[in-house]
Design goal:
By secondary structure, the protein is mainly alpha-helical. It has two domains: about 70 residues; about 110 residues, no CATH class. The chain contains seven helices and four strands.
């Protein structure tokens, strides 16, 4: 087919066929769409689209592909958690204890301030997001349900209270300082949230 004759409908059929017959991940499929769009943008600049100066790829959708988990996930048992925590030092131990005993997301954990912990519960009031270059931004929690108080069980309370006793706690003080959060544990310790 000539570039001047191809419509959005035909391009959508092509994209659907690529989705259905390949194992490409969603990001790769969007790169295919970007390439197709670049081809038609160049065709428009070279006046190969005739009178139609719209890019037919604009309305093409990458559909039918769900985000798939690469591996199955599982939960550690209490004995495993205790073994892992026993091999760590602070502040890694504190961070991992919060993750293991609360199920909070990475951004919610590193966004905790001491005022969010009252001895019996943790209140999620913010989420820390990390940009591609390591920059941090503070956002609201991901969902309304995320803002509900999270009960703190006795083993976690013991760890948090010991960590708080060592910290110089002031109003608005973070549980984990930015240097620890950003440099040593941006993704590896808690995985992608």
């Amino acid at each position: 087919m000539r570039l001047s004759d191809i419509s959005t409908f035909e391009l959508q059929e092509t994209m659907d066929e690529i989705v259905g017959t390949t194992d490409l991940k969603k990001a790769s499929l969007f790169r295919v769409k970007t390439f197709m769009s670049a081809v038609f943008s160049e065709a428009i600049r070279c006046k190969l689209r005739g009178r139609d100066n719209t890019n037919p790829v604009t309305e093409v959708k990458v559909r039918g592909r769900r985000n798939e988990r690469k591996t199955e996930t599982f939960a550690y048992g209490l004995d495993d958690v205790k073994t892992i925590l026993g091999s760590l030092t602070e502040p890694s131990k504190v961070l991992m204890a919060i993750a293991a005993y609360t199920g909070l997301r990475r951004g919610e954990i590193v966004g905790l301030q001491w005022g969010d912990y009252d001895g019996k519960a943790i209140w999620v009031r913010r989420n820390i997001c990390f940009g591609e270059k390591g920059e941090m931004s503070v956002e609201l929690p991901k969902t309304e349900a995320s803002e509900a108080p999270v009960p703190v069980i006795a083993p976690l309370s013991k760890i948090l209270d010991a960590w708080k006793a060592k910290a110089k706690v002031t109003e608005g003080c973070w549980i984990f300082h930015a240097g620890f959060t950003r440099k040593q544990h941006p993704e590896s310790l808690l995985g992608a949230a």
